[in-house]
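Before going further, learn to read the protein records used in this course. The integers have meaning only within a learned vocabulary of local backbone shapes. The record below shows the convention in full.
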Amino acid sequence: FFRERNVARRIIAFYLILMITLASVPAVYANQDSGNAKMPAYVVMSADTGQIVMEKSSTASTNISLLHRMMVCLLALENLDPVLTADLSGQTYTVPDLLKLSLLADNAAATAALSNLLTPVTDSLLVMMNRRAEEIGLASTLFTAAEESNAEYSHTTLRDVARFLSFASANPEF
């Protein structure tokens, strides 16, 4: 029973994150029969196989800020001791608390704190993020800034975001 509930929670979380991502995707325009008709971008991926079942405009460039935040959190889960702490606004938070603040509360300060715990050197963080992206198979993703707000030259696609979510959902703590 608990295993089925955990799987259901993962599926719901996966689709919620995918919907948030879709909401941040800029509209794609096509000059077809209907003139400048807006076409939504989407990716439907099999949770079991990781194969893309359906997609539309999935290779168009999309906002990288959510993927940036999720990549920092994944690296923190994989590399940081959960008992490590960081101070935010005069309060001390553990790594699990910072992960929740970053992912669930969209707290940029928590993401920055996790980044600093991973490495205080910006270039080292970028190397870690890009290396992990390559290992996961995010062929169209490049991180060029350690802070998501300064990531103007960073880029990704909806297809890569779906690949990342598929990979990260295999981690029970993510």
Q: What stands out?
A: Residues 25-37 have pLDDT under 50 and may be disordered. Strands lie at 28-32, 35-39, 42-45, 52-56, 61-62, 85-88, 91-94, 156-157.
